[in-house]
From TrEMBL:
GO terms for biological process: formaldehyde catabolic process. Belongs to the esterase D family. One of its GO terms (molecular function) is S-formylglutathione hydrolase activity. InterPro entries: AB_hydrolase_fold, Esterase-like, S-formylglutathione_hydrol. This is S-formylglutathione hydrolase. Keywords: Hydrolase, Serine esterase. It catalyses: S-formylglutathione + H2O = formate + glutathione + H(+). Serine hydrolase involved in the detoxification of formaldehyde. GO terms for cellular component: cytosol. The active site is at 148 (charge relay system), 224 (charge relay system), 257 (charge relay system). The gene is fghA. Pfam families: Esterase. Its EC number is 3.1.2.12.
Amino acid sequence: METIANNRCFEGEQLRLAHRAESLGCDMHFSLYLPPGARAGNVPLLYWLSGLTCTDENFVQKAGAQRYAAEHGVAIVAPDTSPRGDEVADDPEGAWDFGLGAGFYVNATEAPWSRHYRMYDYISEELPALLARHFPVDTERASIFGHSMGGHGALVIALRNPAHYQSVSAFAPIVAPTRCPWGEKALGHYLGPDREAWKNYDTCELIRAGALQLPMLVDQGEADNFLEEQLKTELLEATCADTGYEATIRRQPGYDHSYFFISSFIGSHIAFHARELEKSVSDD
Ligand SMILES: N[C@@H](CCC(=O)N[C@@H](CSC=O)C(=O)NCC(=O)O)C(=O)O
C-alpha cells in the first residue's frame, strides 16, 4: 500500500492510496477521508460508489462531504469505478458507458471481462478487509451510498449483504439495470445473454425476491436528463409500493444529474447514515 497524497481537511485527513487488488488482478487507487476522531480510535465507515466515467477523485473533489464526515465522526472510502491498467479490456469503441470507468459493480462471468472485472467482490470483500487491516475504521459499523451507476452498486451490494451495512442511500441510482440501455449493455457483456443471471444485480428484482429491510434513502433530481431512459425511479417506487419495502424516495425539483445536485444533499445523506450507525451502537 502506498500513500500518494495526504491533505489535512476539516481537521481530519484526505488520503489517496495505491495498492494491488487481488480480486481485480490489477493495481488500484482509492481515496479515504479520516475524520479528526480517527486519531482517538476506530470510527464508523461509509463506502461511496461513484458513477460512470469517475475515478476515486470525483467525489472527494466535488461532493463537499468532508465537512459532514468530520462533524459526524465517520470515515468515507471512495474506490475507483472499474479495474484499471493497460492490460484491462475496454469497450472496443472507447464508449464511456462500458468498460474502463464503468464496472457496474458486478463480477463478470464472460471473457474477456471476467479476468479483471470483479468489482462486486472488490467492494464487498477485499476493500473492507484491507481497510480493517490498515486504518482506524470499524468495518463492522458500515453503511454504503453512491451515485447513478454507483447508486445501483450501493443498493445491490447492501441488499445482497444486509448484515454488513447498517443503511444504504443513493443519488439518482439506476434502479433497474435489466430494463435500461446502460444496464442492458453492461450486464449483457459482463454476464452474457442469460437474463436470469442479471437479476442478481438489479435493485427492483432483489426487492421483489424478498431482500431484507434496510434503512434506505434515495434522492432523485427531477431535471435529470437520464431519469426517463436510464434511471427509471418510478420502477423503484412501484416495487416498494407493491412489496411493502420501506424506502424514503425524494424527488427534488430542478436538480440535474451532476455533483451540484449531490453536494446539495450530501449532508443529509451523511446525517442519515450517522443516525443509523449510532443506533447500531445503542442496539449492541
Ligand atoms: N461523459 C458523459 C457524462 C457522464 C456522467 O454524467 N457521469 C456521471 C455519472 S453518470 C452514471 O453513472 C458522473 O458522475 N460524472 C463525473 C462528474 O464529475 O460529474 C457525457 O458526456 O454525457
